[in-house]
Design goal:
single chain, about 90 residues, nine-stranded antiparallel sheet
């Protein structure tokens, strides 16, 4: 298992699932741009990107991997499926 990237100053992020309220969340990267996760309270959401445009996401350790397409919303949130984040999102 690879160590997650640590920032000198962690990005300030808020996340939500579906229409839930925004809450503080944490992002971690095992391989920047390829393998990362969001921690939203006790919930962990994992993401994989294979470099050819295919992105998958799973909610929870035992969740099923599903294809998702990232999209920007009018309020400048970045969403994958029904998971959205806003704030200082490291994109590299």
């Amino acid at each position: 298992m690879c160590a997650s990237e640590v920032w000198a100053s962690p990005p300030q992020l808020e996340c939500r699932q579906s229409d839930q309220s925004w809450s503080l969340c944490r992002i971690g990267q095992r391989l920047p741009g390829e393998d990362w996760f969001l921690e939203i309270g006790p919930q962990r959401v994992d993401f994989l990107h294979n470099g050819s445009g295919r992105m998958t996401m799973r909610i929870g350790e035992k969740g099923i991997w599903q294809s998702v397409e990232p999209r920007w919303t009018a309020d400048q949130s970045l969403c994958w499926g029904d998971i959205c984040a806003r704030g200082q999102i490291p994109l590299d």
